[in-house]
Amino acid sequence: MTAPERPQTYVRRRGRMTRAQARALDTLAPRYLLDSGEGAEQRPPRWADTFGREAPLGVEIGFGMGQGLVDWAQRCPDWNLLGIEVYLPGIGSALLGLDQAGAEHVRLVDAPAEWVLDHWLAPGSVDEVRIFFPDPWPKKRHHKRRLVRPDVIARVADRLKPGGLLWLATDVEAYAAWMLEVLAGEPALARDEAGADDRPRTRFEARGLALGHGVYDLRYRRRS
Q1: What's the rounded Cα separation, in Å, for the pair 23 and 84?
Q2: CA distance from start to end of the chain
Q3: Catalytic residue among 99, 135, 158, 217
Q4: Is 135 noted as a catalytic residue in this protein?
């Protein structure tokens, strides 16, 4: 069901899956998980058909264990939401949360973000993209694996509607500086100085705060 792997741009993290997560993958995937298998790039979803309605489209790239995506679904029942992740325990956890919340306006895809941006999201089709606490890949030789890179941000900017929002967050100061540099180099985006809306605290954020890390929220909008 997964898209072809691209080891040069992402690494599928291993993790122990609970019985509940595994059961969710077996029983709830048909309801929420989109098919990104062989040939899926030739049949991109028609989002109005996928969700059964026309609505603003929000995308979370790398939703982790799914807490933020479930919260977004509960706060915005009038949006269509797409969650992108390659961590199977996280997908299982998100499925459990979505089922418990009764969030029928969310779909998940197990595929690299670059693949989804390239094949499934048309230019000017997305109202908001969220990238919360991506892996900072702190070693310099691993920086090429960072999700926030000029080529990825250029694709994200292209997929946003004019005025659409890109919201990033990290608890790693060096990665926040990197993000600022990358975003400053993307001419299609402008810094949004408005205060960030409340968002749920993920376990990754809580762990960073417990270690004394600051949290950096960065928001940008697609220029008209």
Answers
A1: 20
A2: 37
A3: 135
A4: yes
Pairing of strands 216-222, 160-170: antiparallel
Amino acid identity, residue 64?
Answer: G
Query: What pLDDT digit, counting tens, does each position of 128-185 carry?
Result: 999 999 999 999 999 999 999 999 999 999 999 999 999 999 999 999 999 999 999 9
The angle formed by the CA atoms of residues 138, 143 and 144, to the nearest 5 degrees, is: 155
Helix axes 173-184, 150-159, angle to 10 degrees: 60
Token readout for 124 is 């000017």
Instruction: Quote the tokens at residue 159.
Output: 């997929």
Q: Please, which residues bridge with residue 108 across strands?
A: 33, 83
**pTM higher than the cut 0.85:** yes
The number of residues in the chain equals 224
Residue 224: both structure tokens together: 């008209």
The Cβ of residue 224 has, within 10 Å, a number of other Cβ atoms equal to 7
Beta strands in the chain (DSSP E): 57-61, 80-85, 106-110, 126-132, 160-170, 189-191, 216-222
Q: What is the pLDDT of residues 137-146, one digit of tens each?
A: 999 999 999 9
